[in-house]
Design a protein that fits this description.
Blueprint: E1 6-12, H1 21-32, E2 37-42, E3 45-48, H2 52-57, E4 65-71, H3 75-87
Antiparallel strand pairs: 1-4, 2-3, 2-4
Helix pairs in contact: 1-3
């Protein structure tokens, strides 16, 4: 359950897109541009969205729902931007 300062959004990986090196790097680069603490979770596993190795370790495949969560000053903007980033992978 998110706290009052935490924002969450769930977005599915598009069909035909696994969270491999290129899309994971794109997600991490975008996350790094925000001051908020950001996590991405899939299949019961959670990763620091600013760590490429953590995101790759999720092993998320096409159609997998990703839970994006952020807390901090720009949390809402970060979660919206990352959600659009994931949706744009297709």
């Amino acid at each position: 359950m998110p706290t009052s300062s935490e924002v969450e959004r769930v977005v599915a990986l598009p069909a035909g897109v696994d969270l491999h090196a290129r899309p994971a790097a794109q997600l991490v680069r975008m996350a790094a541009g925000f001051s908020a603490q950001i996590t991405v979770a899939a299949d019961g596993r959670e990763a620091n969205a600013k760590s490429l190795l953590d995101v790759l370790a999720l092993g998320a495949t096409a159609g997998t729902p990703l839970r994006l969560a952020a807390s901090g000053e720009d949390a809402a903007v970060a979660v919206d931007a990352l959600g659009e980033c994931v949706a744009g992978f297709g």
